[in-house]
């Protein structure tokens, strides 16, 4: 415990309250405001007994955990179990995982403090003994029958998958079992020797490689409401009893379906509807999960209001569900508790914290006398007036600052005002400067103690959240090519992929990719050449042109594309050359105010943001005018980066203009800028149609006179009457959304000033690297640290569920996007929804409305004039509305994976749990592929590859934005990989650094080469393994991939070893202009291009092959006699000829 906390603990009232807590005497302490609450809870946590900290709302409990964990107190947030009484599939159940994690830590005695709401405290759960009995303990040397282990995992709630991608899954590959537990940092890999546990390894969840060997592991259940033989009987009996009471059983047909699924162990939907049928002896309220936990009720008067409000919503919901036959008992939830002091059984372990005096019978009452500290907003003269007063009254004074920049500012103010201070907290020193995260200070008159926090001194608090190092994933499961997908081959163009075929040629079995072309032409591509094809990506539903295998049209298409790329690259390079010769304004290094401004940002920056900020500042501080593109998804923090650049420009007396494509974005940016600049003398104006003519005229006049530091506006900024006195920085948001005329005006405006362009569409890393020499780009790839995964459901469209989802969001003060893509019948669906949910207000937005109409709708929606926005896919990009935290997608099976991902990204932009409901029409048959696409949403997590698949589609759109519309068309025709290859050639040629073209070498050895299906069953993983094998460039890469395969899948079959070797041989040969390497009759025949001889060390080659190697006298062919086998012979040749 630090010195400050020790001093606070000596306050007489606090001492008495803590003594009562320690002695188990129920007590209440009043007078505790928000500024002191964390201190009080921390002091309580310093006592021996673990406890529940009970907050009025979920948000307050969650925010407290985020704050307190910064202080390294072991604390967990326990969310309530979702009350969903429908058959609905939940994907990546974040709530359940958080709850199970808390249960596990409670059982293990690893948590001291659990924060939760009053509703969660009073809610029912299954008791901890139930989970304790389900823990699977595995030790090295244990013997398990495989079927027994699988059965144990399934009965603990784990789901078997070909490849583990999410928590709560396991996979079985040969002698290896991978388990992804609910808790912990990664996977557990168990390798068996026969039926004995040979090794247990911890595995990194990104790379899937083993990180540590351990001797034993405990696997906690991954399902909260586990259905085993015992609970199943209770469920079936209970449902049957309720059904027998119903006069019209036909109304409750869904329960007959549930019974059928329970009997054949196929029930996989949301289980809350079953909770009331679980055995009563298993049920327990949260406060009785562990009987030695104390309970600290925080602001019980507010908590009571919140829980009564929630019960009101729940009663309304259950009544509706009962009338619509979704549940069989209107009182399914059970007894409702709401008084914080009503339960006698927990009275002796209940304690209360209140702001105002609060009456609770039979408890000790204490009132803390505490005063607040004013907010001075950097007015150090006022601060030191009060410090003088406190010093005269013999107070101990603490000034707290959360980082070095603030500490330095406080230090300098003390020197300026001539006050003594120290960093050492001892009894002799009265004024102490301390580096601590204290937002709001307080005064404790009883012990003459005052604390000034960040908010008091500076007007802003410490940053929220911790910076985490981002991991790069090398997960195999990336390339998603399915049978029926279109692929592009460099030599033959677009074809239809028809799967992997194992062909027997001359008695040797090998894997080939079958690709179908026009007129029933077929291409069989050896799997080691998979890097010669790329998945065709274009607008969803668009079909490409397919030619025959030897088509002239495809050759013409390639030539046209190469010509267009060469022209574009030349223009870019010329532009870059002209720009690099210009001289612009050289901005100064960062000022003290710049540091303070950046430090006032209340969130922790991501690595991408920090890197972008450094790159932009370096540009601004150089003599050349900046022209930088900043890329990152909506909500990834581009605006903050832009505002830091703006502040830097303003500090040097320059004006800043920020141009946005819509009025709504201009409004959002203006609000953000005003909030960020509020503690600094910066004048901001908005120039858009939401301002009156008088306001606009004044802004235009003040801009010309230099009386405005920053102006944010739409194309109105580009009008000829807008003049700047000294423009230094132009920020353009989504430049691709401006027309040709506007772009011409932008060019004239940006003549010699620094330009920063923002774009919300990501682009492929390879493109940004290729263009890095001719286009300055910064990329923010990771979301903010406080982003919570979206709770996602896939379900048949059900009006009762829609009503429930909408009311649930409205009840917590949020808003809803209802995505409906049929513009013609939008009014019809609006009428149906208004009839279904009369409590909600609805607006419509679609692409057929004028820009002005759309902006008005979004503006009014943002200002909460409506609860639900029925919208088309226009919300897919651009909108940042943090209050919208529920998304409902109608007929979601009609959308592609990348669109679904992008749509889901429109919610979950605050620190509140968000929900996405992907619905499909139960009366319409949907394809298996569409169902798979919906279920693939489970992989849109930190651990899955669905994110990467979706990102690939999105990045290609972004590439089109960066390169322009015409180039986007060329990319669609030849595919991204081939486009990039031609772009690299063009840039290299124009920069005088030509890229050496390689050949597609043909390899034909008389050995089996494949990834056997029995070794890796998952098609996607096999495809990506083929892709990685085709890209092996060095012996080290081959060895690393071999080690990874052994680690993940066990001993490698010979056919796969051969394939790894062939992959490496092909790439070495391609680099050195070898056309083909063919084994025939114990001879290796090497067909080469003349350029190969430039690379050959002829003396070493002839020395190492004194016999058995000969050059053909007429043709560029080498023949080598095989001594051991074909692969060893070729490796020896490479070593001798090329030194590899």
UniProtKB/TrEMBL annotation:
PANTHER family: ATP-DEPENDENT DNA HELICASE HOMOLOG RECG, CHLOROPLASTIC (PTHR47964:SF1). Keywords: ATP-binding, Cytoplasm, DNA damage, DNA repair, DNA-binding, Helicase, Hydrolase, Nucleotide-binding. InterPro entries: CarD-like/TRCF_RID, CarD-like/TRCF_RID_sf, DEAD/DEAH_box_helicase_dom, Helicase_ATP-bd, Helicase_C-like, Mfd, P-loop_NTPase, RecG/Mfd. The keyword Glycoprotein does not apply. SMART domains: CarD_TRCF, DEXDc, HELICc, TRCF. GO terms for molecular function: ATP binding; damaged DNA binding; DNA helicase activity; hydrolase activity. Residues 619-780 form the Helicase ATP-binding domain. This is Transcription-repair-coupling factor. Pfam families: CarD_TRCF_RID, DEAD, Helicase_C, TRCF, UvrB_inter. In the N-terminal section; belongs to the UvrB family. It comes from Ezakiella coagulans. Its main location: cytoplasm. HAMAP family: TRCF. It is an enzyme of class 3 (hydrolase). It comes from the Bacteria. It is found in: Cytoplasm. Residues 789-955 form the Helicase C-terminal domain. GO terms for biological process: regulation of DNA-templated transcription; transcription-coupled nucleotide-excision repair, DNA damage recognition. Its EC number is 3.6.4.-. One of its GO terms (cellular component) is cytoplasm. PROSITE patterns: HELICASE_ATP_BIND_1 (PS51192), HELICASE_CTER (PS51194).
């Amino acid at each position: 415990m630090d010195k400050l906390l020790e001093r606070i603990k000596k306050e007489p009232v606090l001492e008495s309250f803590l003594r009562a807590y320690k002695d188990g005497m129920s007590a209440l302490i009043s007078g505790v405001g928000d500024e002191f609450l964390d201190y009080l809870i921390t002091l309580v946590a310093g006592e021996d007994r673990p406890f529940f900290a009970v907050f009025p709302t979920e948000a307050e409990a969650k925010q407290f955990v985020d704050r307190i964990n910064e202080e390294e107190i072991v604390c967990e947030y326990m969310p309530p179990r979702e009350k969903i009484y429908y058959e609905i599939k939940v994907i990546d159940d974040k709530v359940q995982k958080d709850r199970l994690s808390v249960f596990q830590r409670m059982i293990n005695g690893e948590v001291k403090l659990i924060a939760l709401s009053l509703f969660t405290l009073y809610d029912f759960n299954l008791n901890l003994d139930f989970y304790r009995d389900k823990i699977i303990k595995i030790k090295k040397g244990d013997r398990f029958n495989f079927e027994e282990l699988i059965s144990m995992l399934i009965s603990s709630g784990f789901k078997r998958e070909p490849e583990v991608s999410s928590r709560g899954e396991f996979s079985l590959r040969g002698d290896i079992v991978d388990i992804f537990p609910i808790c912990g940092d990664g996977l557990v890999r168990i390798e068996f020797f026969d039926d004995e546990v040979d090794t247990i390894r911890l595995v990194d969840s990104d790379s899937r490689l083993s990180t540590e060997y351990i001797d034993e592991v405990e696997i906690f259940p991954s399902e909260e409401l586990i259905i085993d033989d015992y609970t199943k009987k209770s469920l079936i009996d209970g449902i049957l009893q309720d059904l027998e009471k119903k006069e019209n059983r036909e109304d409750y047909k869904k329960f007959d379906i549930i019974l059928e699924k329970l009997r054949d162990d196929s029930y996989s939907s949301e289980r809350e509807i079953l909770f009331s049928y679980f055995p009563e002896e298993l049920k327990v309220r949260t406060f009785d999960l562990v009987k030695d936990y104390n309970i600290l009720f925080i602001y019980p008067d507010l908590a009571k209001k919140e829980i009564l409000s929630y019960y009101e919503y729940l009663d309304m919901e259950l009544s509706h569900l009962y009338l619509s036959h979704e549940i069989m008992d209107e009182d399914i939830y059970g007894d409702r508790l709401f008084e914080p002091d009503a339960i006698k059984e927990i009275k002796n372990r209940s304690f209360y914290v209140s702001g105002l005096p609060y009456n609770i019978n039979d408890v000790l009452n204490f009132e803390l006398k505490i005063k607040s500290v004013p907010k001075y907003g950097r007015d150090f003269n006022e601060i030191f007036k009060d410090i003088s007063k406190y010093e005269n009254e013999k107070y101990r004074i603490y000034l707290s600052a959360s980082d070095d920049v603030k500490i330095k500012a406080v230090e300098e103010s003390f020197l300026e005002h001539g006050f003594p201070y120290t960093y050492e907290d001892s009894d002799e020193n009265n004024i102490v400067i301390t580096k601590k995260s204290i937002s709001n200070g307080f005064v404790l008159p009883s012990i003459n103690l005052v604390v000034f926090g960040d908010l008091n001194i500076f007007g802003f608090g410490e940053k929220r959240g911790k910076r985490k190092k981002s991991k790069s994933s090398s997960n195999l499961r990336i390339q998603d090519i399915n049978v029926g997908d279109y692929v592009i081959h460099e030599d033959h163009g677009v074809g239809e992929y028809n799967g992997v075929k194992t062909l027997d040629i001359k008695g040797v079995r090998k894997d080939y990719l079958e690709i179908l072309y026009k007129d029933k032409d077929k291409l069989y591509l050896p799997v080691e050449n998979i890097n010669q094809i790329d998945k065709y990506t274009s607008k969803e539903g668009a079909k490409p042109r397919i030619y025959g295998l030897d088509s002239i049209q495809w050759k013409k298409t390639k030539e046209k594309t190469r010509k267009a790329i060469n022209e574009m690259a030349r223009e870019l390079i010329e532009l870059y050359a002209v720009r690099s010769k210009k001289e612009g304004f050289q901005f100064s290094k960062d000022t003290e105010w710049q540091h303070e401004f950046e430090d006032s940002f209340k969130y922790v920056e991501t690595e991408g943001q920090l890197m972008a900020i450094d790159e932009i500042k370096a540009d601004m501080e150089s003599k050349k005018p900046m022209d930088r593109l900043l890329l990152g998804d909506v909500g990834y923090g581009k605006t903050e980066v832009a505002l830091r650049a703006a502040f830097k420009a303003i500090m040097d007396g320059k004006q800043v203009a920020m141009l946005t494509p819509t009025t709504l974005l201009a409004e959002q940016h203006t609000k953000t800028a005003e909030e960020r600049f509020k503690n600094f003398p910066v004048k901001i104006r908005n120039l858009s149609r939401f301002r009156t003519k008088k306001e606009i005229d004044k802004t235009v006049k003040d801009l010309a006179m230099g009386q405005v530091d920053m102006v944010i506006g739409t194309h109105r900024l580009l009008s000829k009457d807008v003049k700047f006195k000294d423009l230094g920085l132009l920020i353009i948001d989504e430049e691709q959304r401006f027309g040709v005329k506007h772009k011409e005006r932008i060019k004239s405006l940006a003549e010699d000033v620094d330009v920063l362009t923002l774009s919300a569409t990501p682009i492929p890393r390879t493109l940004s690297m290729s263009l890095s020499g001719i286009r300055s780009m910064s990329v923010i790839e990771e979301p903010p640290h406080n982003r919570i995964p979206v709770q996602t459901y896939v379900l048949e469209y059900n009006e009762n569920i829609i009503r429930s989802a909408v009311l649930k969001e409205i009840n917590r003060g949020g808003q809803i996007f209802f995505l409906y893509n049929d513009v013609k019948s939008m009014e019809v669906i609006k009428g149906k929804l208004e009839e279904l949910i009369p409590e909600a207000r609805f607006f419509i937005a679609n692409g057929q409305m004028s820009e002005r109409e759309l902006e008005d709708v979004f503006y009014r929606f943002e200002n909460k004039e409506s609860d639900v926005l029925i919208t088309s896919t226009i919300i897919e990009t651009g909108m940042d509305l943090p209050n919208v935290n529920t998304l409902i997608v109608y007929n979601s099976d009609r959308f592609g994976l990348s669109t679904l991902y992008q749509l889901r990204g429109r919610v979950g932009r605050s620190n509140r749990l968000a929900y996405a409901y992907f619905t499909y029409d139960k009366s319409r048959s949907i394809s298996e592929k569409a169902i798979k696409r919906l279920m693939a949403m489970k992989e849109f997590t930190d651990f899955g590859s669905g994110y990467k698949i979706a990102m690939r589609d999105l990045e290609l759109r972004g590439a089109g934005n960066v390169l322009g519309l015409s180039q986007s068309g060329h990319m669609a025709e030849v595919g991204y990989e081939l486009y990039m290859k031609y772009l690299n050639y063009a840039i290299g040629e124009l920069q005088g650094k030509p890229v050496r073209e390689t050949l597609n070498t043909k390899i034909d050895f008389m050995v089996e080469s494949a990834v056997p299906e029995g070794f890796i069953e998952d098609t996607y993983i096999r495809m990506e393994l083929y892709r990685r094998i085709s890209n092996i460039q060095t012996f080290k890469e081959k060895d690393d991939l071999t080690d990874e395969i052994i680690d993940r899948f066990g001993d490698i079959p010979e056919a796969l070893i051969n394939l790894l070797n062939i992959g490496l041989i092909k790439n070495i040969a391609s680099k050195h202009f070898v056309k083909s390497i063919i084994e025939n009759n114990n001879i290796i025949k090497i067909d080469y291009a003349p350029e190969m001889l430039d690379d050959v060390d002829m003396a070493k080659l002839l020395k190492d092959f004194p016999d058995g190697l000969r050059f053909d006298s007429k043709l560029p062919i080498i023949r080598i006699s095989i001594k051991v086998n074909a692969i060893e012979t070729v490796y020896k040749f490479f070593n001798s000829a090329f030194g590899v």
